[in-house]
């Protein structure tokens, strides 16, 4: 895609200083700006790059005063960062808009319902009675099982897999390799040491605006649903076990894992590689540092760290002593010596 | 699928109290029972839901005595939980039985042998000389490499990948995104700092009744086999490196990782996010708590926790002192003061 | 494939002792050698197997002196291990060479450029303007997005996924389920607690000779590139976040995770399940033990362990005290008693 400086300025309600007809085909950071791209200057720390950047067009704040001559064409806007973000959103929408129609070969079961504006890539599979909402983008090699519902404007990237009966909301993004609705890890131990599989007949419900990272797995409920509430963002390679529930607008970083039936509240921030035991209740607005181990319930608003996790301030104190354990041991040995001497003195 | 109360009762050898002709199309938990579904009451704690549930049919124990009127149709059986589990198994078998035949387009190399009763989904790939046993279900987008053998009644879910030469037993279940037989992580360091790949020419052998979770990876042996014994259950996102061996009926939770050539015994229970160094021998009936780090061999029957792992009781004791390290430090500082005073007194 | 002893000897410049015409179709370890396979003896520890092995052909060192009669055909070479490794490389090259041509159905956009000697498996997808180099092997169900460049001799195993605009060097190997170029985990918190997605418009650059393990994920740059330098080897199930950079010949074990914009130097060795915070700088030749937590920059050449990580020697000292914390606590309690007694004595 190609855009002229004057068209960008019109969209942003900005003013062009320089060549109105110059074209850009991509974006770059101002510090490594390339010809034919658009960059922005928001942070004054980067001002020097304004005068040296090879970017063809640079967005700057209206108030900004040039100290030298600039070779790039400038567009003055109210807020250069916001304007740049708006352009990116427009660019991605335009790009996504190009993906439409059904590529062949693909498999759409005759009982499936597919609405308007949909893209279905080659080798994608849509099962029985599945419902695909408006403007949904289903990339190549995606698997949508029987009875799955996919809400409007949702994007399923290449090779993501949705098992039977799952429900995906509007505006969700599911990245490649993510698996939604595989069996929960439930087995009944038998007297002979074998495990008998417990049928996993529930599903997964993703509410609206959920993003699921690459190769993340969300298991179905044993019965009932594993529920990911509106606006939740999961990073890559996360495990969410059967019957978990993750509250609205909670974000979880990569490689974290939740055991079965654990519930996490709203607006929580969970670090990478954190592990949760099963059947826990974690409150709202909780923050958990990376690599923590959570084996107990956590109340609203707490900030915790460590394995097992304690309040952050306490964790920091513990850690200071921990790092100095050899010195502490020496102190104790020294005390033992001194007391021995004192006792000896007393005896004498 | 749709079942009448009287047909369910016949199958379960139970007695219908209410409308014999009422139909159910699914199941639900008694506490959130929905019309048209079947639920069960086993735990007396949930008795109140019996009188309020909207489930159309509820299984109860023969001995159970009603305290109020119930609007649902009841089926009295010897053991409501067992009966429910039996129904679920029947339901899943019936559902699986519906998947049969070969969907198009799919790729089955002409040298492959495919037995009776098999389902092969669209976009599945069966390589040269592969052997697919009876009643195997191969979902869409599965990859079965050259010379792979898949035993009877095994299920390969959508998008699972089996590299060349691997052997999958009877009655196994491999979930979406699992990768069986990728190259082990073996490289020979060169003088110039580069790594030369060591050819990985072994395979993976899964014995019967193994379940492999979504996006779990089991690498092939460098030479020889990586072996997962009968009845092993692996959760999601687990890494099993080259030439490992996991003993019969051992279960491992999500995000655990085994380095190369480590052997784990039978009937072990391994928690989530546990890490094993390479070349270890872990005995039978060992239990390992979550997030543990295993760097030494473990004898039969031990229960360990921590990184590095120690016996569970010891780990708990250590943890109590650990959580109180700042207080211990204070105690030592206090002791130092007191001894200084004592010494001063002695001098005076 | 089938090889005669005399042809193997010719290739290795070795001497046959026994049946020149005997054929082998595979390889085995000498300790579990099977008829029809080739094994080698390099380590004298395994000498006894030489006399009992069922392998049909065994490579031995020229200097080696037989102590008993051997039933296998022997090939004497300068260095049996090197010879065996050379044979394996030859075998794998021969095997790879058999994979060529384009299987149907596959999807190659008409604007894509595909060079000579390429294998494209069934259900593989090659997007717009993609460039596929010479002798590249693209296995079934691989996804290559728009504008992706894949260098010569690279192998993309079944079901690996490359998002738009990524650049893959020469001689790379990407295993099944790996996802290259998914969106970075970037969201702007809003006043109402929701998160607004920050457009992720960068890409991933893999330089030459990079190997990416099964189900590993490398996110694209938010802007600019996530860069994996020449010769880097990543194991399975690793997370590399947006805008990270991993230096030449660095190797990382399974289940490790890097948060955004962290840079790791050259020739580092990183253990399994290690976690890195974001925006860090790790030097060259750094070694990090498994399960470590890295929250600070690390200088060249350091060897660290622990969470948070400290120098290995210090970590070992800390760990010794840590494992004996209950005894240390007892020592302190004992000291408290003794001081109390001393004070009491003084008072009296």
For the largest interface in this structure, which chains are involved and how many residues does each contribute? A-B, 55 and 60 residues
Largest β sheet strand count, sense and barrel closure of chain A: 12 strands, mixed
Total count of helical runs of at least 4 residues of chain A: 5
Numbering strands along the chain, what is their spatial order in the largest sheet of chain A?
A: 8-11-14-17-20-25-28-31-34-37-39-40
CATH hierarchy: architecture of the largest domain in chain A:
3 Solenoid
What name goes with the CATH superfamily of the largest domain in chain A? Hexapeptide repeat proteins
Topology:
The structure is a homotrimer of 348-residue chains.
Chain A: E1 3-4, H1 5-12, E2 15-17, E3 23-24, E4 26-27, E5 37-41, H2 47-52, E6 57-61, E7 73-77, H3 80-98, E8 101-102, E9 107-108, E10 113-114, E11 119-120, E12 125-126, E13 131-132, E14 137-138, E15 143-144, E16 149-150, E17 155-156, E18 161-162, E19 167-168, E20 173-174, E21 179-180, E22 187-189, E23 195-197, E24 203-206, E25 211-212, E26 217-218, E27 225-228, E28 233-234, E29 239-240, E30 245-246, E31 251-252, E32 257-258, E33 263-264, E34 269-270, E35 275-276, E36 281-282, E37 287-288, E38 293-294, E39 303-305, E40 310-311, H4 312-323, H5 325-347
Parallel strand pairs in A: 4-5, 5-6, 6-7, 8-11, 9-12, 10-13, 11-14, 12-15, 13-16, 14-17, 15-18, 16-19, 17-20, 18-21, 19-24, 20-25, 21-26, 24-27, 25-28, 26-29, 27-30, 28-31, 29-32, 30-33, 31-34, 32-35, 33-36, 34-37, 35-38, 37-39
Antiparallel strand pairs in A: 1-3, 2-7, 22-23, 39-40
């Amino acid at each position: 895609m190609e855009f002229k400086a004057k068209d960008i300025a019109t969209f942003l309600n900005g003013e062009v200083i320089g060549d109105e007809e110059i074209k850009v085909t991509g974006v770059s950071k101002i510090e490594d700006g390339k010809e034919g791209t658009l960059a922005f200057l928001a942070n004054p720390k980067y001002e020097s790059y304004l005068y040296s950047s090879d970017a063809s067009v640079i967005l700057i704040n209206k108030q900004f005063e040039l100290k030298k001559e600039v070779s790039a064409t400038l567009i003055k806007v109210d807020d250069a960062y916001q304007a740049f973000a708006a352009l990116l959103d427009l660019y991605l929408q335009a790009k996504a808009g190009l993906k439409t129609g059904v590529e062949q070969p693909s498999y759409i079961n005759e009982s499936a319902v597919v609405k308007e504006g949909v893209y279905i890539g080659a080798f994608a599979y849509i099962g029985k009675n599945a419902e695909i909402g408006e403007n949904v983008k289903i990339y190549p090699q995606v698997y949508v099982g029987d009875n799955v519902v996919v809400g409007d404007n949702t994007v399923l990237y290449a090779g993501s897999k949705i098992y039977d009966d799952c429900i995906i909301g509007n505006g969700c993004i599911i990245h490649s390799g993510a698996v939604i609705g595989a069996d929960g890890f439930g087995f009944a131990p038998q007297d002979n040491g074998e495990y008998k599989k417990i049928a996993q007949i529930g599903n997964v419900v993703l509410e609206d605006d959920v993003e699921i990272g690459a190769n993340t797995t969300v298991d179905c409920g044993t019965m009932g649903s594993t529920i990911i509430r509106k606006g939740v963002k999961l990073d890559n390679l996360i495990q969410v076990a059967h019957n978990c529930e993750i509250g609205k607008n909670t974000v979880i970083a990569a490689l974290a894992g939740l055991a079965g039936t654990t519930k996490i509240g709203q607006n929580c921030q969970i670090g990478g590689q954190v592990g949760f035991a099963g059947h826990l209740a974690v409150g709202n607005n909780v923050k958990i540092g990376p690599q923590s181990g959570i084996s107990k319930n956590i109340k609203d608003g707490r900030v915790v760290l460590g394995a097992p996790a304690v309040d952050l301030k306490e964790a920091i104190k513990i850690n200071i002593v921990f790092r100095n354990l050899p010195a502490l041991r020496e102190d104790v040995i020294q005390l033992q010596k001194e007391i021995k001497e004192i006792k000896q003195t007393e005896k004498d």
